[in-house]
Amino acid sequence: MSMECGHCGSEVKDGFKVCSGCGAHYRSNMKIFVGGILLLFLGIITVPDHLIAGLVILGVAGLCVYQGGSRKWYRHNA
Ligand SMILES: [Zn+2]
Question: In 15, 21, 41, 65, which residue has its Cα 20 to 30 A from 72's Cα atom?
Fold first, then answer.
């Protein structure tokens, strides 16, 4: 089984995380993921005092964890 590079459409062999055509990396974004985890804690400590703001932060945190944790094609080492 193989997959297509999300940037140039080249075929990338299974097990390879780097496109041989354009050099894009298939990976999760740890910076966004870790940022989401930190926001999660911030939201948890904010909720008791500021419910709405805390819930908004928790929503953003969940989005960051989800987006950062899912693997995508990155052209540059972001
Ligand atoms: Zn490519």
Answer: 41
